[in-house]
Protein backbone atom coordinates (compact mmCIF):
# COMPACT_ATOMS: atom_id res chain seq x y z
CA UNK A 1 0.00 0.00 0.00
CA UNK A 2 2.81 2.43 0.89
CA UNK A 3 4.54 1.76 -2.43
CA UNK A 4 1.34 2.52 -4.36
CA UNK A 5 1.03 5.82 -2.47
CA UNK A 6 4.61 6.83 -3.26
CA UNK A 7 4.22 5.91 -6.92
CA UNK A 8 0.98 7.88 -7.24
CA UNK A 9 2.20 11.00 -5.41
CA UNK A 10 5.42 11.07 -7.42
CA UNK A 11 3.55 10.83 -10.71
CA UNK A 12 1.32 13.71 -9.60
CA UNK A 13 4.36 15.76 -8.54
CA UNK A 14 6.07 15.17 -11.89
CA UNK A 15 2.94 16.21 -13.77
CA UNK A 16 2.49 19.31 -11.59
CA UNK A 17 6.01 20.53 -12.37
CA UNK A 18 5.44 19.89 -16.07
CA UNK A 19 2.10 21.68 -16.03
CA UNK A 20 3.54 24.68 -14.18
CA UNK A 21 6.35 24.97 -16.73
CA UNK A 22 3.78 24.84 -19.54
CA UNK A 23 1.67 27.50 -17.80
CA UNK A 24 4.76 29.69 -17.32
CA UNK A 25 5.62 29.53 -21.01
CA UNK A 26 2.05 30.42 -21.99
CA UNK A 27 1.84 33.24 -19.40
CA UNK A 28 -1.14 31.52 -17.78
CA UNK A 29 -2.29 30.94 -14.20
CA UNK A 30 0.46 29.19 -12.24
CA UNK A 31 0.70 26.48 -9.60
CA UNK A 32 1.94 28.06 -6.38
CA UNK A 33 5.41 27.35 -5.06
CA UNK A 34 3.73 26.28 -1.83
CA UNK A 35 1.79 23.59 -3.73
CA UNK A 36 4.88 22.45 -5.67
CA UNK A 37 6.95 22.10 -2.50
CA UNK A 38 3.96 20.67 -0.64
CA UNK A 39 3.57 17.76 -3.03
CA UNK A 40 7.29 17.06 -2.62
CA UNK A 41 6.93 17.17 1.17
CA UNK A 42 4.12 14.62 1.29
CA UNK A 43 6.13 12.05 -0.63
CA UNK A 44 6.52 13.36 -4.16
CA UNK A 45 10.11 14.56 -3.85
CA UNK A 46 11.46 12.10 -6.43
CA UNK A 47 8.78 13.11 -8.95
CA UNK A 48 9.41 16.77 -8.17
CA UNK A 49 13.14 16.35 -8.77
CA UNK A 50 12.50 14.48 -12.00
CA UNK A 51 10.10 17.23 -13.10
CA UNK A 52 12.67 19.90 -12.29
CA UNK A 53 15.28 18.12 -14.41
CA UNK A 54 13.10 16.98 -17.32
CA UNK A 55 11.21 20.27 -17.71
CA UNK A 56 14.13 22.48 -16.56
CA UNK A 57 11.75 24.13 -14.12
CA UNK A 58 12.63 25.83 -10.83
CA UNK A 59 16.25 24.70 -11.17
CA UNK A 60 17.63 28.20 -10.54
CA UNK A 61 15.60 28.78 -7.39
CA UNK A 62 17.65 28.03 -4.27
CA UNK A 63 14.48 27.18 -2.38
CA UNK A 64 13.85 24.28 -4.77
CA UNK A 65 17.49 23.31 -5.39
CA UNK A 66 17.96 22.73 -1.67
CA UNK A 67 14.55 21.68 -0.39
CA UNK A 68 13.67 19.01 -2.96
CA UNK A 69 16.92 16.99 -2.54
CA UNK A 70 16.60 17.23 1.26
CA UNK A 71 13.04 15.91 1.00
CA UNK A 72 14.28 13.13 -1.31
CA UNK A 73 16.77 12.03 1.33
CA UNK A 74 14.14 12.18 4.05
CA UNK A 75 11.65 10.12 2.06
CA UNK A 76 14.32 7.61 1.06
CA UNK A 77 14.99 7.12 4.76
CA UNK A 78 11.30 6.80 5.54
CA UNK A 79 10.84 4.23 2.77
CA UNK A 80 13.85 2.21 3.89
CA UNK A 81 12.55 2.21 7.44
CA UNK A 82 8.99 1.23 6.48
CA UNK A 83 10.05 -1.46 4.04
CA UNK A 84 12.59 -2.84 6.49
CA UNK A 85 10.00 -3.64 9.13
Task: Give an overview of the whole structure.
The chain has helices at residues 2-25, 33-55, 62-84. The longest helix has 24 residues, at 2-25. It has one domain (2-84). The mean pLDDT is 95. It is elongated and about 45 Å long. Helix 2 (33-55) packs across helix 3 (62-84). 82% of the residues lie in helices and 0% in strands. The chain is an all-alpha fold and 85 residues long.
Please describe the topology of this protein.
Blueprint: H1 2-25, H2 33-55, H3 62-84
Helix pairs in contact: 1-2, 2-3
Mean pLDDT: 95
Q: Helix amount, in percent?
A: over 70%
Distance between the termini: 14 Å
Q: Determine the number of helices (DSSP H or I, runs of at least 4 residues).
A: 3
In terms of per-residue confidence, which ranges show pLDDT below 50 for 5 or more consecutive residues?
none
- Main pleated-sheet profile: none
Q: Name the shape in a single word.
A: elongated
Q: Could you tell me the strand content as a percent range?
A: under 5%
- By DSSP, the count of extended strands is 0
Number of domains: 1
Helix/strand class: mainly alpha
Q: What would you report as the Rg, rounded to the nearest angstrom?
A: 13 Å
Order of helices and strands: HHH
Amino acid sequence: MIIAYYIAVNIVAFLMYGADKFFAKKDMWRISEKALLGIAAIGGAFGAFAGMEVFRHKTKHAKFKITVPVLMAAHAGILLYLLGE
